[in-house]
Amino acid sequence: MKMNHHYGELKASYLFVDIAHKVAAYQEAHPEKEIIRLGIGDVTQPLAKCVVTAMQDAAAEMGTKEGFHGYGPEQGYPFLKQAIQGYYAGRGTQLAEDEIFISDGAKSDLANVLGLFDVDNTVLVPDPVYPTYVDDNVTDGRKIIYGRTSQENGFLGMPDDSVKADIIYICSPNNPTGAAYTREQLKAWVDYAKKNNAVILYDAAYECFITDPALARSIFEVEGARECAIEICSFSKIAGFTGTRCGYTIVPHELEREGMNLNKLWLRRQTTKFNGVPYVVQRAAAAVFTESGMAEIQANLDYYRQNARVIADALDECGVWYCGGKNSPYIWLRCPGGMKSWEFFDWLLENCGVVGTPGVGFGECGEGYFRLTAFGDAEKTKVAAQRIKAAIQTL
Amino acid sequence: MKMNHHYGELKASYLFVDIAHKVAAYQEAHPEKEIIRLGIGDVTQPLAKCVVTAMQDAAAEMGTKEGFHGYGPEQGYPFLKQAIQGYYAGRGTQLAEDEIFISDGAKSDLANVLGLFDVDNTVLVPDPVYPTYVDDNVTDGRKIIYGRTSQENGFLGMPDDSVKADIIYICSPNNPTGAAYTREQLKAWVDYAKKNNAVILYDAAYECFITDPALARSIFEVEGARECAIEICSFSKIAGFTGTRCGYTIVPHELEREGMNLNKLWLRRQTTKFNGVPYVVQRAAAAVFTESGMAEIQANLDYYRQNARVIADALDECGVWYCGGKNSPYIWLRCPGGMKSWEFFDWLLENCGVVGTPGVGFGECGEGYFRLTAFGDAEKTKVAAQRIKAAIQTL
Predict the structure, then answer these.
(1) Which of B3, B42, B108 has its CB closest to that of A70?
(2) Which one of A200, A350, B69, B380 is separated from B327 by 20 to 30 angstroms, measured CA to CA?
(3) In chain A, positions 248-307, which contact chain B (CB-CB < 8 Å)?
(4) What pLDDT shows up at residue B13?
(5) For residue A15, what pLDDT is reported?
(6) Total domain count for chain B?
């Protein structure tokens, strides 16, 4: 028996464990202080009413002989795939129904899609970014190179012709930086991918926060993307499904490599190794795209957007550089006073009672930066923003 | 870009497609005939009332700020893991809570667990069996050997010391044969696995059909199994969750290979590449283990058991050899008159208007055998059994 020793190469991540320890120690030393958490990447607003009703109705159906649903299509029910088709068509992107695969969330598909590719490929991962992209490839044994980003390029890396990569991760709007690509910038990535015969894995989990019409909400808004990209998306942020688990992956018919059609391969993978998303969850997800669903969802998104604005305004007033916050729930700020990420974490906790996430936890290029999120309670976010402004102004 | 060419080595499975074509052609030629389907492996009884209620209540919770659940533990909520602990303890098997990992079903975990093992391992798969075990390993490129079974050994293969395997699949009660191992038989497998440093992947999806106290419902009823086995189980058959998607995998603390602890590895795999099962589904699954839940579930299981009995009685009356049917929803019969599997399929459709599944579709050793299932409607199953008996008696 030979184990997969690549698991031994994973770096243990203590980021959120270390944060929890520091916060607990601080709270113990200062039991009177109210700590406000702006570090969380999880949503907090409840599911929309029409989503709850759709789920309850579907559960009732499942309790009747006539309405019972057993095994469904592994790639999702037509009613949900058609609703997603409509969501994309509404912004001018045409997809075929069988290019859409319903999943239990972006995290699963981001890992599982790698099974279509040989381990002998080079993977380009932006720095800083969601750490799972790296771990998913370390466990498979792929070579990873990093696309370094910085304040100078607005934390939006652009292709470098001297670098050869086979699999390219793009997360736009990015977690943690909130930076989002324009269609023109993405076009450069599409051209690079086509020239290098690479495949782009495009993580669009935060597309719903985009309001600026110059920014792409899907890579398929870019010409040529259908020949080189897979898009992975989720209901987690648009509809608060982090605990309800539904997402979707788009694999265009045109995407072929080494004579293999990736849409057919992914269908084969999913029908072999997955058994679909709960019927009740698919019904709930479809309700998101109804008229009342979209209205309720937008009200939730506006709640988070307002939080982002409150934080961004406070940083503007103290002249702190940041990106994100406008088309993203994340505000990525340069630590004031030249502080390093963890220094600022301690300073912010000590001086404001506010918890955020040290940027260096998302990659080396995050050192000296810090992530705040808009997913908190509105009132608490206002208090936090005022405390941050007051404290930074004393620096 | 190099693709995973092992996908090209998968054999296309036309089994259920071919069956559908044959049935459609027959129905078209004989529009007046009522066709009864005893080929399905999917449940048909609705979810239990208390399961539906638990799901609806959980959905209502998710619609409130206080009751909302975002990201949950990837390995499942304690309330469900504790309920499963109680289910096992009730039959004398003690498990630690953190040995239980909640999944979206056995199919996902059966595929994903292979990621813990190197591709350079030899896999022993029984023949006949659920075809996915083979496909999961073909796509990874592992060497597969088959454990041939036959009527002589009751379709229950026993270890052969001249065969060297690293990963051993056991499905008990087996799909498609319905044959189930006693604890003594499993002990031989555990001894073999320990001697060969192998790991057993034990698929217990049909354990709920076992009533004979000599048969094992979990491999962990067998001494030594904690050092060599992973058990994969599901709510699909016990509670009709084929469209609701929940299962669990048990990885004991004692299981170590090459200095790696498989419980810790699986935790790392799941926290990296999976984001848990919907909160509402976990609440629904927990309701299965309440007093009223177990009562409702048993009524459903008894419905299927009665169907199995009706079919088995008919076969007994015509002297047809079969196994399964008593501790399994599957009846695996020897095709009468020396017919081959597909011959009997055509004969059964033509003479009885009954659809089943040719045994050869589950492996070479299934040739000459045939699977009928107990998941159909009770009245239709009775009619089918009468037709089968009458037709076989004319042979």
Answers:
(1) B42
(2) B380
(3) 257-258, 260, 265, 268-269, 272-281, 284
(4) 77
(5) 87
(6) 2
Q: How far away is chain B from the Cα of A24, in angstroms, using its nearest Cα?
A: 20
pLDDT score for A6: 97
Mean pLDDT by 10 residues, chain A (395 residues): 96 86 96 93 95 98 98 97 98 97 98 98 96 96 97 96 97 97 98 98 98 97 98 98 98 98 97 97 98 96 98 97 97 98 98 97 97 96 98 93
Q: Which of B259, B289, B319 represents a domain boundary (last residue)?
A: B289
Q: Looking at the structure, do residues B76 and B223 belong to the same domain, yes or no?
A: yes
- pLDDT band, very low/low/confident/very high, at B15 (cuts 50, 70, 90): confident
- Residue A55 near chain B (CB below 8 Å): yes
Same domain, A221 and A337: no
- Asked if the Cβ–Cβ distance from B243 to A112 is below 8 Å, we say no
B285 and B355 together in one domain: no
The CA-based angle B222-B293-B63, given to 5 degrees, is: 115
Which CATH number goes with the domain that contains B64?
3.40.640.10
> CATH no. for residue A308?
3.90.1150.10
Q: Is B149 helix (H, G, I), strand (E, B) or coil?
A: coil
Judging contacts by C-beta atoms under 8 Å, the chain A residues touching residue B71 are: 42, 242-243
Same-domain pairing of A160 and A280: yes
Pairing between strand B167-171 and B122-127? parallel
Instruction: List the 1-40 stretch of A: residues with Cβ below 8 A of B.
Output: 1-5, 7-8, 10
Same domain, B138 and B278: yes
Has A292 been labeled as part of a binding site? no
Q: How far is B44 from chain A (nearest CA, A)?
A: 7
Which residue's entry shows tokens 């031994």? A8
Cis? peptide before A176, omega within 30° of 0? yes
Residue B4 located in a structural domain: no
Please name the member of B49, B135, B260 whose beta carbon is closest to the beta carbon of A272.
B135
Q: Which residues of B touch A284 (CB under 8 A)?
A: 59
Q: What angle do CA B248, B253, B259 make, to 5 degrees?
A: 120
**Domain carrying residue A303:** 5-46+292-393
Rounded to whole angstroms, the Cα distance separating A135 from A149 reads 20
Choosing from B227, B256, B289, the residue where a domain stops is B289
Model ipTM?
Answer: 0.97
> Is the same domain home to A91 and A236?
yes
B19 is written with which tokens? 């069956």
Both B251 and B325 in one domain: the answer is no
Say if the Cβ atoms of B10 and A62 lie within 8 Å. Answer: no
List own/partner pairs for A344-347 with CB under 8 A and 24 or more apart. A344/A370, A345/A19, A345/A22, A345/A370, A346/A22
**Whether A257 and A353 share a structural domain:** no
Which pair of structure tokens corresponds to residue A160?
């470098």
